[in-house]
Amino acid sequence: MKKRLGILLLCLMVVLSLVGCGTNTSQEAVDVDSGEVEVGESYVLKFGMVAGTQSNEYKAVQKLVEEVKEKSDGRLTIEIFPESQLGDDRAMLEQLEGGALDLTLAETGRFGIWVPRAEILGASYIVDSFEHLQRVIYETDFGKELHEELINKHNWRVIGTGYNGTRQTSSNRAINSIDDMKGLKIRVPNHQPLLEYAEFVGATPTPMAFTEVYLALQTNAVDAQENPLSTIKAVKFYEVQDYLAITNHTINDVNYIVSEHTWNKLPNDLQAILKDATVEAAVYHTSLFVNEEKELIEYFEGEGVTVTKPDLAPFKEAVAKSYQRYIDDIGDEAQKVLDAIESVR
């Protein structure tokens, strides 16, 4: 009798354990044919971004979503929230910091709000190319220490960096040299490095909301504006500006950032998958902008825009005088950043 009761209890335990496995399919997958149980929790992450669904940024993030889902066999999926649905870039970074959002994009210079020395990388003509910027971020002590500080103080882990276009200057008169910048009323964002670009090359910086720029150019309330070529095309500034100068004054990067709260919740294998897929997405991100910029010059010329290529040496020399502000405001740490930039030029 006791033996029979023991067998019944054992059978009951087996049944209950199988029922328990079946109540959480998101955590465990049961192979009925082989009898093997493969344990692996699934995760759904939220990716917030400012750019819209037609942008290169969105296309690159879509690639990330596809790669992650495929490589994780569906255990890790990402939902995209474009067009500032979750707020502007600053708001989304703050959401990552608190753990309310999982992933977002931000340029390195944007970190300057919280880590002042990072703003230096957003200064005009501070780096020669995106490759130079990459070396500063990933090969110098400054870059490595910055990334550690972002993790330790703000819960922002940078897991990939892509090229996000170079800012150029469109205008209602030809810019063949720095002399043509004198007195030019140029719209810039209310962002100190870009205000200084306009000021130090002799123009008159005029901050205004982005939504007001097209009309201001059309009515000659301002003479010029500056933006990456992709933006100039998307907003059709070429319709109200006859000239485009290749000033190459600011090289934009974009970081793929995951909340440290999210990162620590993921098992090692999914961390590796997310990291590898992000690196691939960042490479694709870069290629989209590089290829597009080559095509856009021809596109603008086809639309009747005159493209000029002024000698940039005088531009760089003039704007370099603005870098003293960083030393005045930040001190020795700013000089260390400037030295780091030079060390990998």
From TrEMBL:
Q: Which GO terms describe its cellular component?
A: outer membrane-bounded periplasmic space
Q: Which InterPro entries match?
A: DctP_fam, TRAP_DctP, TRAP_DctP_sf
Localization of this protein: Cell envelope
Q: Which residues form a coiled coil?
A: none
**Binding-site positions, N-acetyl-beta-neuraminate:** E107, R167, R187, N227
| One family name in Pfam for this protein | DctP
Q: Which domain of life is it from?
A: Bacteria
* Record's keyword annotation contains Transport: yes
Q: Which family does it belong to?
A: Belongs to the bacterial solute-binding protein 7 family.
Under what name is this protein listed?
Answer: Tripartite ATP-independent transporter solute receptor, DctP family
- The organism named in the record is Natronincola ferrireducens
